[in-house]
Amino acid sequence: MKTNKYVIGIDFGTNSCRSSIFDISNGDELAGNIFAYPTGEAGVIIDTSDPNLARQNPADYLLGIESTIKAAIKVAGNGYPDFSAEKIIGIGIDTTGSSPMPVDKKGNPLCFDEKFKDNPASYVWLWKDHTSYSEARGITEQAAKTRPHYLSKIGGVYSSEWFWSKIWHCQKESPAVFNDAYSFVEICDWLPAVLVGDTNPDNIKRSICAAGHKAMYNEQWGGLPDYEFLESLSHGLGEMRKRIFNKAFAADERAGCLSREWADKLGLSTNVSVAVGAFDAHMGAVGAGVKTGTLVKILGTSTCDIMVWPNDKKLADIPGVCGIVDGSVMQGYYGIEAGQSAVGDIFLWFVNNLVPDSYGKTQDEKFINLESAASKLKPGETGLLVLDWNNGNRTILVDVRLTGLLLGQTLHTQAHEIYRALVEATAFGALAIIDRIEENGVKINEVINCGGLAIKNSMLMQIYADVTGRPMKVSKSKQTPALGAAIFAAVSAGKNVSGFESVDEAKDVMTGINKTYNPIPENHNVYKEIYKLYKRLHDGFGTKETTGNYFNVMKDLLDIRDKVRKEL
Amino acid sequence: MKTNKYVIGIDFGTNSCRSSIFDISNGDELAGNIFAYPTGEAGVIIDTSDPNLARQNPADYLLGIESTIKAAIKVAGNGYPDFSAEKIIGIGIDTTGSSPMPVDKKGNPLCFDEKFKDNPASYVWLWKDHTSYSEARGITEQAAKTRPHYLSKIGGVYSSEWFWSKIWHCQKESPAVFNDAYSFVEICDWLPAVLVGDTNPDNIKRSICAAGHKAMYNEQWGGLPDYEFLESLSHGLGEMRKRIFNKAFAADERAGCLSREWADKLGLSTNVSVAVGAFDAHMGAVGAGVKTGTLVKILGTSTCDIMVWPNDKKLADIPGVCGIVDGSVMQGYYGIEAGQSAVGDIFLWFVNNLVPDSYGKTQDEKFINLESAASKLKPGETGLLVLDWNNGNRTILVDVRLTGLLLGQTLHTQAHEIYRALVEATAFGALAIIDRIEENGVKINEVINCGGLAIKNSMLMQIYADVTGRPMKVSKSKQTPALGAAIFAAVSAGKNVSGFESVDEAKDVMTGINKTYNPIPENHNVYKEIYKLYKRLHDGFGTKETTGNYFNVMKDLLDIRDKVRKEL
């Protein structure tokens, strides 16, 4: 079936956004264009005196939409004679999250108001803003006492990456902003609303994905956490709840059609369907072809692990996962979300701060040479062991007050050895998540990887296969979140227009696998030994319950290293 | 008393040697000259496939003696009208150790023999060669079973940095070298013998310092370990003992007078007294003005901590110190030696391997900028904690099978923060030694620091004062080992010539204090908290006995960091 119809997915990342145009008959990307956010450092407003602070300017998103869609349409028009802008039937949007911002009654961001423009609290509170760690702890403690059911669906611990922690911290950090805010809106909800031309907070169709995973929304208990609970946290939060939302929607719903203003701006028709938004990882999972038994890993600056599970089958609570939300990925399934707080971010930190120029002058050169040198090393050869906690541990410990650990360095340890150990650490972190999910009854039959690291870093993918002992598949699409968003756009356009009845149907047509990395048994055997040591440190530093003696850790690593070196 | 007499101290370090000419009336250095060893990497023969291997070419030493003494004499002659080479009355030598080498019957190094020139086992086994770690363990185990008194004077554990481990490993690594070796000689014994013109191993006056601290020599049990014990380690070691030595000497003894050959070569008289050699740290302690109650810290690539204790007073065994040897520093006193396996070496490793060029292009520039940035930080501000074990832990754990640990890094951690944490770690290591010595009844009234780091790195000295809560004095002489060697040279020349009856007398005239760093109470208070965490990790990873839970470690560091940052 050659429909000659196209959809746009817009993926709003941490440092840039990207629009991609996809052919709905096969999921191929005709054109894509990236826009780097101009505000702050690599698009993030930071505060050198507080490493926890990370905000973003929503004006950057609007510039990005216009710039990237127009550029992508132009490129697609030049490269594909069959393509024309009139054949675009839908736009889907995915974003980071939880990334809420305070808005006024019309839904305008407070940071657009002259009086708040120098106040970081009035901007978007980016997912990786951890300023609210003590509020997160407060929510966890209060819920444990009075609303334990709230915690059971979010792995037992509320996070500073999430909605209510951030809003509560906003109230403390800047009462002026909080008091002037009519509502708080996730950017995945606000951006579709902008495109359809109605940002009135009371009208915005909020995402079930954002609501369920980050705002403790659950229809079982009547939506958002109740008024009394929120007021018990802090006076004013309960009142704010009334102006947030009562009902959330899945992303195959239509938010509306493109407004006249935006249709003109982009050169598109007002018939274009705009889908309800969702988070990048959830849409990415769809773009990677998620199904029951499939773990989709979206490997980027941080990592999201997504699974689905039929919502008519029994599913236990899984301690330490970020959330289990009915419909958050696709209607009819529970979405299970887990993740690692930093993966690519750890490598970036290392390359930007601790790699001498002997590896190259630019960041890219350094990465290439580090990977080339590191890939020549055998498992265990570095003698190093790392805990991948530079940004805390999301799953399975749900603890932002954890930090990195590097162990085993000698006077001969070189940067590429540490780089390899960092990659291995993220693989161990990935394995801890896999084990935790399977221990709780959700069998994982395949692992599909997507995101930049999965595509570009073959050493990393092989190490993940060797550490986990499982084949690592890599998704065909290089832009799975955008593709996922586009799939929802196609479905939201309706069967009459796209031909797709359901997300499952569109997904089967538009997704696929590109490459598979198979585990090498002898490598897996070495990593099994090292993982035992990783897990001991993981539990010793990451849980209150584990006591132990670590006298053997360095020695065992040296023994493994010496054995491997002898075999070379 | 202006005697107008001069002495030369030659200090053989790990990468270079240095000759200094001192005025015996005040210890002032008239001239000094350095010679970088030409062989290997920075003077050390290494093996990229075995980071434990570190050998040295004795030919480098001979080139160094000639080059540095001639150059120093020339400079002194130009700068000081009163000086002339005829007024030089003695030469003293200090070296690294234990750094033994195999020699033939005439005392010629086996590596000078054409047939062994490509065999690293025939060269000097440098102190920091750790290839013999399993032999060290074997010696400790065997001694614990059959000769526990051997261990009681060396802190309970025999080290791979020491004499018998290296000789035993030589037997395993290269039986050809071992079997051709008539004897093994410490370079601190061999070099004075070269200068007096008699290297016959049976005639060489061996140093009590080297013998007692590294070769388990003790007159209480008849000198070196007995034949049966050595044979029980490995057949052949007992036979080798017979050709090593029976009696050892203190460094104020004269090895002999300068040979005609060397007198001519250096432009000196054959009346010049050559003192028995000793290790750099022990002579450095004398050059720094060691006395009862004084801890002298020689801060270099590694660190030696030296104390003396009157040999007519009770002194308990001190677990974990490297050795307690009667007369090893000065006659009439027990010499107590402790030390840290790597201090400057850790900083060098870090700067050479993990510091980007944004801190500077050269090693020197990087150090300057790291120190400048790190010195602006407050104690606790980095949130980092390091175990300074990249080269194992000499005192108090006596364990080379330990490695480094860095904990607390986030995505914002920068190189200068880690640099500061590395410096702090070595200060914590220093404090662990101070505590251990005092807990065993040896009161420390003052700490005198010497060596390059003490002179050049004021941030380090202030951190040491703040961490230990004690004033850190810095020795007046920048060349304390060479000055110590020169003091022994002066004493060995005899009272008639030098005017000195004893080392104590010469020391009082020739040494002094330059500068004192006083602890800052508020810094000390923060470091007391961090030291508790250091000590928990130290014991948890460094001893078999300690079990614990480390859940609070990262959190406590973050709490300290956040508190410090708030106060800024």
Polypeptide structure, described:
- The structure is a homodimer of 568-residue chains.
- Chain A has 568 residues and is of the alpha/beta class.
- Chain A has 21 helices and 23 strands.
- In chain A, the strands form six sheets. In chain A, strands 1, 2, 3, 6, 12, 13 and 14 form a seven-stranded mixed β-sheet that branches.
- In chain A, helix 11 crosses helix 17.
- The radius of gyration of chain A is 23 Å and the shape is globular.
- Chain A starts with 5 loop residues before the first strand and ends with a helix.
- The mean pLDDT of chain A is 96.
- At the A-B interface, helix 12, strand 20, helix 20 and helix 21 of A face helix 12, strand 20, helix 20 and helix 21 of B.
- Strand 20 (404-409) of chain A pairs antiparallel with strand 20 (404-409) of chain B.
